[in-house]
């Protein structure tokens, strides 16, 4: 497993002043160019499906609903529907979600089900950790939680940064803690760092938090826990994209992006995909560099596909292979 490495802390990468209003205007303008209908919408919906971390993070999670989550992640749309859309048979095994995401205590349940489905090597198990969603625990207990999740079978860890450090501008402190989390993941798990953008106050902080996490070896930067009042927004995503672009320019390292929370509909997903395509480029539209963290998006994708199949007013249902899986 290839993971990003820890780099020395570099204050110069934090030097950026971003206008919230400008970010909003650019993000809205780009997202408008992603308005599609009919078969094109279905193709983009299927692409979004393959980039989604199918998620359950409820206090009432049980082994049963985690097994159900894995079953649906592995086989989200019946084969006969995909064939009717014109998807080539060779592509059918690749149409599943990018990962499943659960609490550490439920990782073993997910691993057992995916092994039963012969999908354990195809669908990664992501686990939130480090006192998700607040992160208000001692560092040792947060690191122990990472270790427990990995020992249970997780190959991706979604950690939450210490917002208290971020809000007082202690970026070196944020960096130092994430470095310890990177070390805890080692070579066994990819590290996704959740910024909780709705609690950082402004886009300048979003940019700086992104940089601190990437220097600490994050493989992904993620917008939100999904538990904040404000979760994934396109302007915040754009601030994170600017950080990713500058980090690649200065350090030559690619870091992924994961919007989470607030991506509820297929048009929402397509707006994000358009934003990525027109800023970072199509190479980011793969699971190793872009994910959606969403609990309800899969339902909307299935509704979109079924709606297209069942609507006699829409034209040919062929050539869905235009999507790049």
TrEMBL record:
Pathway: Carbohydrate degradation; 2-deoxy-D-ribose 1-phosphate degradation; D-glyceraldehyde 3-phosphate and acetaldehyde from 2-deoxy-alpha-D-ribose 1-phosphate: step 2/2. Transmembrane segments: none annotated. One of its GO terms (cellular component) is cytoplasm. The keyword Aminoacyl-tRNA synthetase does not apply. The keyword Translocase does not apply. Signal peptide: none annotated. The active site is at 222 (schiff-base intermediate with acetaldehyde), 258 (proton donor/acceptor). Keywords: Lyase, Schiff base. InterPro entries: Aldolase_TIM, DeoC, DeoC/FbaB/LacD_aldolase. It holds the Pfam family DeoC. One of its GO terms (biological process) is carbohydrate catabolic process. Coiled coil: none annotated. It comes from the Eukaryota. CDD domains: DeoC. Its EC number is 4.1.2.4. GO terms for molecular function: deoxyribose-phosphate aldolase activity. It catalyses: 2-deoxy-D-ribose 5-phosphate = D-glyceraldehyde 3-phosphate + acetaldehyde. It is an enzyme of class 4 (lyase). Belongs to the DeoC/FbaB aldolase family. DeoC type 2 subfamily. This is deoxyribose-phosphate aldolase. It comes from Bactrocera dorsalis. The lineage of its organism: Eukaryota, Metazoa, Ecdysozoa, Arthropoda, Hexapoda. The gene is LOC105233871.
């Amino acid at each position: 497993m290839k993971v990003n490495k820890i780099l020395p802390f570099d204050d110069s990468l934090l030097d950026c002043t971003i206008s919230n209003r400008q970010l909003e205007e650019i993000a809205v303008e780009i997202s408008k160019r992603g308005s599609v209908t009919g078969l094109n919408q279905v193709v983009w919906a299927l692409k979004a499906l393959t980039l989604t971390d199918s998620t359950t993070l409820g206090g009432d999670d049980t082994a049963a609903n985690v097994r159900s989550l894995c079953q649906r992640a592995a086989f989200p749309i019946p084969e006969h529907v995909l064939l009717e859309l014109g998807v080539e048979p060779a592509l059918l095994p690749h149409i599943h979600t990018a990962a499943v995401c659960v609490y550490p205590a439920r990782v073993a349940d997910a691993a057992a089900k995916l092994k039963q489905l012969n999908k354990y090597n195809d669908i990664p198990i992501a686990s939130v950790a480090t006192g998700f969603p607040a992160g208000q625990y001692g560092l040792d207990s947060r690191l122990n939680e990472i270790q427990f999740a990995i020992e249970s079978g997780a190959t991706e860890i979604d950690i939450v940064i210490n917002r208290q450090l971020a809000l007082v501008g202690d970026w070196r402190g944020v960096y130092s803690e994430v470095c310890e989390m990177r070390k805890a993941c080692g070579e066994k798990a990819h590290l996704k760092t959740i910024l909780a953008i709705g609690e950082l106050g402004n886009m300048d902080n979003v940019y700086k938090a992104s940089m601190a996490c990437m220097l600490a070896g994050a493989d992904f930067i993620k917008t939100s826990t999904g538990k904040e009042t404000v979760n994934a927004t396109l302007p915040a995503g754009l601030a994170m994209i600017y950080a990713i672009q500058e980090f690649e320019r200065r350090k030559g390292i690619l870091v992924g992006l994961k919007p989470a929370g607030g991506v509820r509909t297929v048009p929402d997903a397509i707006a994000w995909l358009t934003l990525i395509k027109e800023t970072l480029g199509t190479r980011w539209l793969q699971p190793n560099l872009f994910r959606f963290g969403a609990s309800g998006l899969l339902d909307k994708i299935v509704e979109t596909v079924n709606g297209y199949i069942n609507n006699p007013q829409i034209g040919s249902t062929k050539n869905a292979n235009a999507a790049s899986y």
